[in-house]
Amino acid sequence: MRAPSETREKLLKTAIDLVWQSNYCSVGVAEICQRAGVTKGAFYHHFETKADLFYAAAQYHWAEVKPELDAIFSPASPPLEQLENLIGFILTGHQPSQGSGAAELEVAGCPFFAAGGQVSVEETTVRRASQEMGEKSIIYATALVRGLKAEGCLTGDPEPEQTGRMLFTFVQGLLMYGRALNDRAVVEADLRDGMYRLLGLKAAYRRESRQDAAKPLLEPVAGGG
């Protein structure tokens, strides 16, 4: 017999997998239970509602992603390296997972963020999950802007908090657009250049195209920027 803690974790992982494949509104408790191999009684032992499961699954997902973000934004890495590692993470971290059942989906995006805009205003738990995850992500983006600004990599005098929010919303919007078209090439074509423009990254520090993604970071050129 499965331990209660194992049942709860199985429900969380199943919810994440199903939401990744479709969206919050289209996934029901019965489908979650069937996929997880648990009874509805077991479900309601751990969660009062589907929204409560969604909130817990969002927190579980964040706990899995946070170590990767902490590594990307480690103070041991220069801000430019952090930026390029973040771009790589976005391009690889929002693809459908192997064996997810979404083999035809080229861009999975992050439905946890999108769900907040899909539900009614009464779904406060779902919207709170999306809001909290967004706020946490913006903290990282803001720190990146501050680091790049301190290193003299940016033009002008961007306000870190606002620029961090703009980066976050741009990335999420682009992922949603790529998912709607089911075309990964759309994301690959616009992600790097879009982030560079929003940041105001000086020309000396830019990679010219997505084909250059595997190349080392550009060294500043004399008089560049």
Write the layout of secondary structure elements.
Blueprint: H1 4-21, H2 29-36, H3 40-46, H4 50-72, H5 79-93, H6 111-118, H7 124-150, H8 160-181, H9 184-199
Helix pairs in contact: 1-2, 1-4, 4-7, 5-7, 6-7, 7-8, 8-9
Summarize this structure briefly:
With 225 residues, this protein is mostly helical. It has helices at residues 4-21, 29-36, 40-46, 50-72, 79-93, 111-118, 124-150, 160-181, 184-199.
Distance between the termini: 64 Å
> Superfamily at the CATH H level?
Tetracycline Repressor, domain 2
Number of β-strand runs = 0
The number of helical elements comes to 9
CATH domain class:
Mainly Alpha
Contiguous low-pLDDT stretches (5 residues minimum) are 96-102, 210-225
Query: Architecture, CATH level 2?
Result: Orthogonal Bundle
**What is the string of helix and strand elements?**
HHHHHHHHH
Report on the biggest sheet: none
Classify the helix fraction into a percent range.
55-70%
Instruction: Find the structural class using helix and strand composition.
Output: mainly alpha
Average pLDDT, rounded to a whole number, is 85
- What amount of the residues lies in strands? under 5%
Shape: elongated
How would you describe this protein?
- There is one protein chain.
- With 225 residues, the chain is mainly α.
- The chain has one domain: Tetracycline Repressor, domain 2 (Orthogonal Bundle), CATH 1.10.357.10.
- It is 64% helix and 0% strand.
- It has 9 helices and no strands.
- The protein is elongated, with a radius of gyration of 19 Å.
- Mean pLDDT is 85; it is low at 96-102 and 210-225.
